[in-house]
Amino acid sequence: MLQDHITVQNRYKSFIKQICEIQTLFALKDETGYATSYSNEIEYEDGEPAQILCFWSDAARAKSCVEQEWNHYEVSSVPLAEFVENWCLGMNSDGLIVGADFDSNLFGYEAEPLEVILDIITELKNTGKTLELRKFKNMDDLEKQVKEVLED
After folding, report:
1. For residue 43, what are the β-bridge partners?
2. Are 77 and 28 in contact (CB under 8 A)?
3. So where are the chain's domains?
4. Whole-prediction pTM value?
5. Element holding 29 (H helix, E strand)
6. Which parts of the chain have pLDDT scores under 50?
7. Topology (CATH level 3) of domain 2-151
């Protein structure tokens, strides 16, 4: 079990690096919406498993999950800035969790959306990259506001 946890943790680190490098990530979409799953680790206050929206760092990995209940979904790209400003902030408001680089067994890293934003900002800063944001002055402004929400 520890090996699985380490593997998933390393896959998440790779996910963050890759999406920051290419400034894009991928989701599975059909006519009704995006691919979701349920958490194995995180529960709502009522004891129900938290709902996860799944994202991948490359189109091929996303496509490998187009099977069983997702067999009618198609790979859809999401720009990184849009993911941070719209998806993650919206998911946080809606109580949804980010599923990162799930495999075909729907096993992957589960993270709070605001934590994902902070991980992305850290990676971008470490590599000297930035995001062009529409709703925030810059990445520092976004980071400050996310941290304030997490402290409350």
Report:
1. 49
2. no
3. 2-151
4. 0.92
5. strand 24-30
6. 1-2
7. Trna Endonuclease; Chain: A, domain 1 (3.40.1350)
